[in-house]
Write a structure and sequence with these properties.
mainly alpha; Serine Threonine Protein Phosphatase 5, Tetratricopeptide repeat; Rossmann fold; 2 domains; 5-stranded parallel beta sheet; 28 helices; 64% helix
Amino acid sequence: MSIKVVKRRREARGADMYRPRIEQALTAGKVAEAAKIAASALAAGHVDTLVLNLAAWRKEEAGDYGGAHALLKRALALAPGDVLILGSIAAVLRKQGYPEEALTILDRVVAAEPRHAAAWLERGYVLDALRADAAAIESYERALAIEPTLAPALGKLADAAARRGDTAASETYAHRALALNPAEPSVIFALALLAIEARDGASAVARLEPLLATKLAPDDRTRALTLLGDALDRQDRTAEAFAAYQRAQHSFREIYRPQLEPSRSRPSHRSFIEKIMAQVESAGAIPPPAPQSPVAGAADMHVFLLGYPRSGTTLIENVLASAPGVVALEERDTLADIDAALLANDGTMPPLDSLDPALVERLRATYWERVHQLGGPVEGKVLVDMNPFNGLKLPIIARLFPDARIVIMRRDPRDVMLSCFRISFTPGTAAWALSDLTEAARHYDALMRLIDRCRETLPLAYHEVRYDRLVTEFEPTVHALADFIGLEWTDEFTRFDRTAKSRGVRTASETQVRKGLYNGGGQWRRYADALAPVLPILDPWIARFGSDA
């Protein structure tokens, strides 16, 4: 008998020793025990798709997403096209902070197996991470149509309804989910949010604290802590609220540290801004470029709305979107192709004033094609392209779109910092910066300095909107903005809350904007002690944009 045959028989006997135990544990519903056995089998050199899948699940549960991904890729090599394995890979990619890649895989899965309820559910999770609310809801509904007792899908629909202010729908979904699983996290989130919106912080705390005492998925723990902070804030227990926000941000950083913590190969978002600033200062004042040829499909008026997260950009975007003839794109990645061509990972740009004219025309055309894909036709209309961080793209905007109008939203930096710290942002290098209060203040300072320098050196038309004046002097403030853009006044501007409800809001400002006009300024005073360490960094901007300035 050959050595190879003897080795294969030994491997088969070893696999036979593990496989029945794994299947017995799975039959009994003991997934963790089955995964532990699978890990032992893997360590002993016994490899098949079931063993790899379970061992990957164990690593995923432990937060080792990279290790789980590696094992799942090995499983996929043994069973190419397996929809269960592909779905697991997508889930790990989402948890690693790569939702776009996860969505691509899941679209393949549901196309190959349309009745794969778990894939539709995971697709909903991914779309939620991308803040594509309507598409996420559709995915959860597809999952429920296949498996009506899928409590997580019901919970997610309850949560989505709560966020858009539909109390009746949220409670209906929540009651169905609770009958299936009283501890479903997304249901607790929905009911807690409804209580917070009703100013019943005590009820929200009573729901969230028992949930936090259980084992939660890392992202769910972050969300629960953020909501707990909001619930405590409703009771004016600000010291406890801030402690909850700190715990939430710590949770976020622990989850995404491997993907987002700055390193030599991955510069911080602040250093990215500072690199652009150095290039702007080196270039000095830039003369207006030569007239550019019209681009097919371009809007009649092009507006970039920017500032800083939580400064009021979503509010203004919905005000403008209320006017007839305005197409508004809320934090859509319209500049992705341009960034890929002109921005390196560390913020380095080529000399923009000497770009090949053919490249400029190609990038301009690509931009408008992308706008058309994301927002539909814009010819003859006004396009409002809103992204708070587009301030760092001003040098590129000035080169490619010199006729664009730039609207800069300004708000008291103390309220901005507090509001950013109270929010769970979509994972990314900017979100990492905002998860630490001191780094957030330095990041804010860097971006404000860059915007100031660009205003001094780049030939663009600028207009500032102050949040404190918008909420106290709405009509004159919006009149001035409309005049700058070239829009006629319409009473529809005042109905922006209805616009927000009908079109949906993709940003963290969803619950605020749909309430209508209210003055959310001055909240920082209740947290003055917590903010005190970063005030020296913010002082120059407080002097300029503070609500008491």
